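Narrative summary of target 7.
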Amino acid sequence: MRARHIWSWAACAGTAAALLLVALPPEAFAQARPEARPAAAGKPADAIFESAKAMFEALPEADRKAVQDALVWTGDFNAAVSGEFGRRTFDAINAYLVRARRPASGTLDAPTRKTLLASAQRARDAVRFSLLTDARTGMRLGVPQGILVKHDVNPNGGSRWQSADGKITLDTRAVAPAEADLVALYERSINMQTPGRQVTYKLLRPDFFVVSGETPTGRFYLRYASGPAGLRGFSIGYDKALARDFDRTVIAIANSFAPFPESAAVAAAPRQPQPAPAAEPAQPKPPLASGIAVAPGRILTSATVAACADLRVAGAKARMLKSDQASGLALLESDAVTAKAPVALRSTVADGGVLVLSHAVNAGSGPGLVVTPADIVGGRLVAPLQPGASGAPVFDRTGALVGVAGALRSAPNVVAGIVPPLAHPFVAAEAVARLLADSRVAASSPPRDAPRSAGEIAAAVGTAIVPVTCGEPDPSP
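Modeled conformation, tokenized:
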């Protein structure tokens, strides 16, 4: 069965004051800073981190989230409030401790935690931040009512909150199920032609999208989610001059967004005893890598798959034909793969960046084709790649194969639902050509055609992009 297409976009251009949207600060999407390396009492830095992690994870989940949310309000934490401990939380706690003139141990004792929570509450109270259920859309969202003092109707349907001077605007909107089209709304949001608008991040998933960026004078952030009740979302925009004080409030608003609180309430309501449900089928394993069929039964992918003793391609058994650790490439064989993409190699990248076509498991829905705009900078592939993108083919905007994504080192930290763009290894077309020539797979140098859209390129080669897994059973009985 052909995999569902799931479009992931990143690092492009665009922003609109006309929409009065708002961007989370750029550092909220950046790679997490390295852990602080304190030398408290001669204790090794790694041991300090692990000790702090153990103490944090011993707290109840509600307390862990409360600490992270408080650190948002003190300006020390710029990521999603998840209750999980990582380097961002470790660094945020240490930043707070340093200001409090305490040792940077990464841990908060009970009195310090109480002081932190009280400080955050004062910051919330100062802007009258309240979690509201929007009567016009049904969503739940945190609103700084002390700043956004004007409450009116959003002309597009929903509610509008604005500051007294009109320099900050928060809009909510709901779209009825009969009119809901997440992809169409996403496309309109990224393709607005407004002078000076620059989209700095865009991401589409099966059930939500995020678009953010800047205008010459402002920032914007837009998020919509889909569900049985249609589409619900919000946009927020503010003057750049206010960023120093308002950025943390934007992060708090984004973390508070609950598009369908009524669904959560139904799920949490007590239920009458029911017969035990049938066991659900196991969720698919995340792909080990992605590959591209370059000839009938031949799949080009990452050499990292060589460590697997039970290779599968699209669920069917496969075997290793050749693995080249020097180039980072491998060639697999599987009789189940018949579709192939024309191997048109180009050693130079056309203008307009590149596209990475990979496979990933998305919210338990199974593997889906992910199309990710990227750039090649200094021989590295800069893109928000997800686990499973190792070995993914990289195309220029004309549809020519220019290389392969190298091995991803680890899963990235997701920030407010967003995978940040990071620098990954890149295997250029020359290494691909050498491996294919040694394997008797013909490759050609294509003419420089006119640029094509991401959709056109995905349609042309999408059936040849396959997930590579380890030990996943055949889908057939």
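The first helix runs from residue 45 to 57.
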